[in-house]
Amino acid sequence: MDFAFTREQQMFKKEIIRFAKKEIVPRVQEHDRNEAFDFESFRKLGRFGILGLHFPEQYGGSGADVVTTVMAGEALGEAGVDGGLTLAYGAHSFLCADTILRHATEEQRQKYLPRLASGEWIGCMGLTEPDAGSDVASMRTTAEKKGDKYVLNGSKIFITNGPIADVAVVYAKTDPGAQHAGISAFIVEKGTKGFDAGPPLIKMGVRTSQTSELFFSNCEIPVENLLGAEGEGFNMSLQTVEWDRSALLSPFVGAARYMLNACADYAKKRRQFGRPIGKFQATKHKLANIRIFYEAAQSLAYRIAWCKDQGRPLNHLEAAVAKLFVGDWSMGPANDAMVLFGGYGYCHEYNMERIFRDSRLAPIGGGTSDIQKMIIARLI
Amino acid sequence: MNYDFTPLETALFADVATALKNLPADADPDSRQAVLDKDLLCRITGCLAQTSYLRLGLEPVADLNGHLTLMGAMEALACRSPSAYLAVEASTRLFGRAVAGWGDTARKARWLKPVLAGDLIGALALSETFTHSANQSLSTCGEKHGQQVTVTGAKQYVINAPVADWIAVAGMLEERFALFFIQSTTPGLFIDTPLETMGYEGTAISHIRLDGCRIDADQVICPNNGQNVPEMLKMWENQILLGAALGISGAAFETARDFAKTHKSDGKPVIAHQEMGFKLAEMFTLLQTAQLLAYRTAWTMETNPVEARELMWCAKVFCTESAEQICSQALQVMGSAGCVEGNRAQTAYRCAKYNQVTGTSTEIARVKIGDAELGYRE
Predict the structure, then answer these.
(1) Helix A316-329 and helix B274-303: axis angle, to 10°?
(2) Residues B149-168: pLDDT tens digits?
(3) CATH number assigned to the domain comprising residue B170
(4) pLDDT band at residue A98, thresholds of 50, 70 and 90?
């Protein structure tokens, strides 16, 4: 075992934190209050090289390994970037772009990936449906082959980046009679006739990300837009799930470090009963609980990243353990941090209430904690 | 970065786990009857001496990764028998480590060599009535009389004291921290009867009293000035308790999982019932998270001892508190079967609390972590 990061990785992390604190964090609170997507910050992420970090260089990326990519997410969280923007980044880079990277034709890669890496285009993934969440085999969206086209009909829900996406990776049944083996994946571009997005959903947290329904009504797409072969969609979605449970988790881990720093600063300045509240044991215990979560969660997130770097396919157990732990346990530190700030923590001026709201997504998005428990119970 | 143990390490863990299988069929190192069975303890240390287990962390072992390998091996032994583990570790990683770290060649030959061979049982006496958590000061002290030193004081909760050949007693000598190495037969050393403890019933733990106990001056080791020795000793204790927490967590989880796969309710294994399956999933998640944190802490002890201090406190809190949760859940999964004397999950459950309250207690550890985050240093 060796838990060391390379010197380059450590320097890169510091660079991201410096960049994000200067270019993105000052804009976070305003966009959160307005429930507005921050296009400018998103494109800055692209220019800095984060959106396409793990893409090969020929597609506008840096060819980074998964550990470095996970580290980038942690750095954004540690800098204080909100969960909405990091969620949008994750849905764009991993759920959409990575699927194209792994399963599209060379021509499609050349067409989409450089634009996605730069942030010129925004991507999303359409998998979840009103009656098919974790039970993806129940999906009703269909893709019927007619000559040189597929015709998509159905709808998707809770699609991160849905209202703002230029390109979507959409899962649909090419064989409605089959279960998982009937699912296929397609590229659908914005503006395609019969493809539409609903208005942004109003959410509790991660408010700067735009989430909506997607609608397909006799939406015709060329057969070339089929990713891989018919029936391979379910396995593709499982691969993206590993990103959900590593890179998409890492901003929550980084946010714990952000909370620690903010809470320690506040506890040293805020005085009650004639002394800084940091002198009270109850305050120290809250700080300790956040730190312990940070240390524990970090190891899990990087383990799944390392497993992916080793080319170990479908690390279900490791991924589910990481997701369950970070999902369920991250709410405690966020609550502790908000309470430590007292009344200020409850107000929007201090961003602890925003972090608290953002943390509530962790046990829900990307497979609820109950689903993770089902997976683990099956595999142990 | 690498998250796998090497094949050599994995083989060692297997050897450690099987070392206790050679004991007599009726020998149970976790029973209260084993508490004064020094022969049994010596057999166990003798078996372990056939592997590199006892040497890990005390001296370099080729192709093995010091504290990191040790943590995995500790887990394997504690999983098999918590009481044997605690006794072996008190002798080796407390008593033996003090000699390895601060003793000269002659003292190493006298005390360390037989410890590593499994021929000598040691104990280290640190805790006192008013100094057990923060170690602000020690009231036990030595007074020089020519080539002899007279030691006076009292120590509490000394692991192995009733069965030890030698006890290293922490105290003060001429305003310096000192370790007084005292043979168990020395006049003036009074060892109480073993305490009846909740958990670790097979480990002999007692209070001791030193009433004008005379020893030769060469039985005193004074660590280098500038070292925070009590803090180091707490770190060693915490390391042992981490291994214990992982071991009992693993034992409780395995026992509950195996039960849940074989015991049927409503015509199907209880693990197939969602509530039971979910409990086991939570236990497994805590176990894996604790393992990774403990392994990383051990690795950091090798690579960055200064940074390891705070990480150790974090690991101490998380691993020991998780262990209690895992053991409690295990009993819940197993129902009445788990509560029967001798069941591994029940044994583990009774040991879980001790791991939290000894070493740096989880309350004190949290205060120290908070202080570190705030930049408050003691």
Answers:
(1) 90
(2) 999 999 999 999 999 999 99
(3) 2.40.110.10
(4) very high
